[in-house]
Specification:
Radius of gyration: 23 Å
Distance between the termini: 41 Å
CATH class of the largest domain: Alpha Beta
Number of domains: 2
Number of strands: 28
Oligomer: single chain
Length: 559
């Protein structure tokens, strides 16, 4: 089924134009326009302490000057390894002001998980949460890293919060094992932010320059760099702004609980908010206590999140007798959104909760439910403006399936990336005749709504994050007691999946499930660690020796 001329626009997205004007705007332009037109508007709120657009813009210019003094030049990559905090946002736009690209990383990753990306992107400067400095210092050997800037997030908190905040600190045992000498003392953020502002004459980025580099894995589990150009990100912001037309410039408050190392968090939570001169209420982690404290101070008007987070907010609001009325818009992604949750949320808020869909490679949103009564729970929605889709036969991508039948979703549009960093073969495999292969199997209703029915890519989605089975399997295979392993995702009551490992052990070697889980914790961030380990005598395989994951799932359910 092809939808080159959208079937849905007149009936289901009233007021949303089919084609939008993106101009030559860059992501930096989005920031500077809001700073110029709304200087006194609160820009960043961090657990109750707010800074205006003018105040933040001044620091952006100074940090840009400091990074320039460290040798950052147009076209360079600068790594950011922090939770959501003011310094993350400030560094983001400071890097762009230099014509360089931001590389966002999960601050809870181990040195083993970060090593390949750091070697690949070659950043000479990393701005990192002070708690993970030892992990980042362990990456110096074998990478281009020269300067590490430590960020103490507590300096941006209200005084009463400084001792109350408790953030998870990743285990750095792998990093410590790699250190053969004391790490050099990291430069402090305060020193970087006290530099002279970058000269106005410094060259600015263009729309075809890389703005953001994120790392994602395919079925191989090897991280691949996804370069998103300024024009890709701006296109998705302009599309999102047209889609949620009720958002008003200079009057909105966005809850930023999604991490900035995720495309969803960057584009929908931050860049769309910046384009609207919204107040960005930053949370260092999506903890329900922090969320409810923020809502108690001021009910946000827009909440991008994932289904488990919406569930916790509704439950906790009822338990605390806190009103969440006034949240006008909520866009859910990363996993299926239960219809019952939509009903509860909309009853409690008086606003809309709709499901959208996208990938890192698409900046990320390509499909969404209309922000109106026409939204359809259970469906991912209809294509964004200027997004073309095909539903192709998975066995023959040159042919589209008939309306209503299952097929692979292929897309193209202004927010779709051009290819993986330095990986021509992987890029070629990701596209078919100019169309990006999403790896998801969908159906389309007669009136144009898409529903995901299966995934071609073997990705497990847990808590809104992607887990690649081969990565977890690779770690488990390094255990001396493991002969073979298959990692799969099983449905969880929150609408996501839980990571489960089916393991074949060396005969006669006694190994307990918790021993294997502890083994994976040495190398992987917590959400990738299997919730369960199930022992099997052998794994089901096809005649070619490939593991039959659906059969693995069936056997696990029998245990």
């Amino acid at each position: 089924m092809s939808a080159r001329e959208p079937l849905w626009a007149d009936s289901y997205a009233p007021g949303v134009p089919l084609h939008l004007d993106y101009g030559d705007t860059t992501v930096l332009d989005l920031w500077e326009r809001s700073a110029q037109h709304h200087p006194d508007r609160p820009a960043l709120d961090f657990l109750g302490r707010a800074s205006t657009y003018a105040e933040v813009d001044d620091e952006v210019r100074r940090v840009a000057g400091g990074l320039h003094a460290l040798g950052v030049r147009p076209g360079d990559n600068v790594a950011l390894v922090m939770p959501n905090c003011p310094q993350n946002v400030i560094a983001f736009f400071a890097v762009l002001r230099l014509g360089a690209a931001v590389v966002e990383h999960n601050p809870l990753y181990t040195a083993a998980e970060l090593r390949h990306p750091f070697v690949d992107h070659g950043a000479r400067v990393a701005i990192v949460w002070d708690k993970v400095v030892p992990v980042i210092e362990a990456l110096r050997a074998g990478s281009a890293l020269e300067h590490v800037i430590a960020v103490d997030m507590t300096t941006r908190l209200p005084w009463r919060k400084r001792l109350a905040l408790r953030l998870p600190i990743p285990k750095a045992r792998a990093a410590r094992d790699q250190l053969t000498a004391p790490a050099p003392e990291a430069m402090q953020w305060a020193e970087l932010a006290s530099a002279a502002p970058l000269a106005d004459s410094h060259p600015r980025p263009g729309k075809d320059d890389v703005a953001l580099l994120l790392y994602t894995s395919g079925t191989t589990g090897v991280p691949k760099g996804v370069p998103l150009l300024h024009r890709n990100l701006v296109a998705n912001v302009v599309q999102g702004r047209a889609w949620v037309s009720g958002l008003q410039e200079g009057r909105e408050s966005f809850l930023v609980a999604l991490p900035l190392f995720h495309a969803y968090g960057v584009t929908v939570s931050v860049l769309l908010g910046v384009a609207l001169a919204a107040k960005l209420v930053l949370l260092p982690k999506p903890e329900i206590g922090l969320i409810m404290d923020a809502i108690s101070r001021e009910v946000p008007s827009f909440v991008p999140a994932v289904p488990p987070l919406y569930q916790r907010i509704v439950d906790e609001a009822e338990r605390r007798h806190v009103s969440i009325t006034g949240i006008r818009y909520a866009l859910s992604g990363a996993m299926p959104l239960p219809a019952a949750l939509v009903e509860r949320w909309e009853s409690a808020t008086g606003g809309l909760l709709v499901e959208g869909y996208g990938l890192t490679e698409t900046s990320p949103v390509i499909v969404g439910n209309p922000m109106s009564g026409a939204r359809r729970p259970g469906a991912i929605g209809v294509p964004f403006p200027d997004v073309e889709i095909r539903i192709a036969d998975s066995e023959d991508l040159d042919h589209d399936v008939p309306l209503g039948e299952r097929g692979e979703l292929l897309v193209r549009g202004p927010q779709v990336f051009s290819g993986y960093r330095g990986l021509p073969e992987e890029t070629a495999a990701a596209f078919h005749d100019g169309w990006f292969r999403t790896g998801d199997v969908v159906t389309m209703s007669p009136d144009g709504f898409l529903t995901i029915v299966d995934r071609i890519k073997e990705i497990i989605i847990t808590g809104g994050f992607n887990v690649y089975p081969s990565e977890v399997e690779g770690v488990l295979r390094t255990h001396a007691g493991v002969v073979d392993v298959a990692v799969v995702g099983l449905p969880h009551e929150d609408g996501g999946e839980e990571v489960v490992a089916a393991v074949v052990l060396v005969e006669g070697v006694p190994v307990q499930p918790e021993e294997l889980r502890a083994h994976t914790r040495q190398e992987l961030t917590p959400y990738k660690v299997p919730r369960r380990v199930v022992f099997m005598d052998e794994l089901p395989v096809n005649p070619m020796g490939k593991v039959l994951r659906r059969e693995v799932v069936a056997r696990i359910r029998e245990h």
